[in-house]
Amino acid sequence: MGKRTTARAMRHAPGRALRRAVAALAVAAGVMPLAACGEAPSTFTQPEGPTIAIGVAADEPGLALWHDGSYDGFEVDVARYVAGRLGYANKQIVFKQVLPSDRASLLDDGTVDMVVAGMPMPDGQDTQDDGSAPAYAGPYLTVAQGLLARVGDGDDADAAHPDADGIRDMRSLAGRNVCVVAGAGAREALLAEQPKARVRERDTYPQCVTDLMIGTADAVAGDSVVLAGLARAVGRALVTRVPGISYGTVRYAVAVAPGAETLADDVADAIADMRADGTYAEALAGLTDATGWRAS
Question: What was the pLDDT predicted at 166?
């Protein structure tokens, strides 16, 4: 069965390929049942002494993933390094799951002390003048926006079929259903490029990928590094990042509570140390190995 036949079959019938894809996604992002119930996973060991609560994603393979009872990924490595430079041992770090839609509010109400979960760093410091916005340190990663599509809808092979109804550029998204994650900024970035896209918001990336696989979404828009990790986890025979589509720029920064500029400065120093001693390059190589994504 060819690629386009497989893609069409998945859109119209819940065959074995679709069941395998959804199962793979559940394994890769095992926090989905917990997130749906509002119970974010946390570390099970009781730390001794002072602790630091760090908000991280839990369902983004390569960046931050809750798997087999612990968190791992590039952002988790950054968080651990920063906490260590602030004087906390690993056993004093309490990771808490955050979503793009609640990460700022959990920081503001003190649920977490800092967030290392794709928080976009604003240009300049104007947004912090009134003391109501988080303070930022970074950036520790710069990414573009992109698209994820079903194989047969967005891969290079489709370009060989002029009559194919594929997704090959932003014009292809006019009138199509595109899933984005609420609070991630993808909605605004996408509509700025293609205002005729039909945007549907979900709470998590795995939910968007599920919509893509069952056909209720034609594409997923979001940060390219996240989409690369999801494509690797689900299987590149089923979903693919659409080649040639890259727009916007997002600078990931560590966010701390509003007004905590001194802490932000300490975190910035820690990130600089991480780059200087080679730990950052090692963590970035691990991100590339896990997702196939490369920093530009």
Answer: 82
Q: Which two tokens stand for residue 52?
A: 């630091």
Q: Which residues are CB-contacts of 63 (< 8 A; sequence separation ≥ 6)? A: 57, 73, 74, 75, 118, 225, 226, 229, 287
Coil, helix or strand at residue 84: helix
Which secondary-structure segment (H or E) carries 247?
strand 247-256
Amino acid, res. 75: E
Residue 74 and residue 287 in contact, taking contact as beta carbons nearer than 8 Å = yes
Please tell me the distance from the alpha carbon of residue 167 to that of residue 172, in angstroms, as a whole number: 5
| Alpha-carbon distance values, 97 to 51, 115, 185, 213, 259 (Å) | 16, 10, 19, 25, 23
For 4-38, the pLDDT digits (tens) are: 333 333 443 344 444 445 554 554 444 333 333 33
How confident is the model at residue 17, as a pLDDT? Answer: 47
CA 179/CA 201 separation, integer angstroms:
6
User: DSSP letter at 199?
Assistant: E
Q: Answer whether 211's CB lies under 8 Å from 149's CB.
A: no
Q: What are the percentages of helix, strand and coil residues in the chain, rounded to 5?
A: 40, 25, 35
Diameter over CA atoms, the chain: 65
Distance CA 237, CA 249 (A): 28
- Burial (CB count within 10 angstroms: exposed 0-12, middle 13-18, buried 19+), residue 108: middle
Segments of the chain with pLDDT less than 50: 1-20, 24, 27-40, 42-45, 125-129, 155-164
Separation CA 97–CA 75 (nearest Å): 12
pTM of the model as a whole: 0.82
pLDDT tens track for 184-213: 999 999 999 999 999 999 999 999 999 999
- Residues 187 and 265: their CA atoms lie apart, in Å, by 31
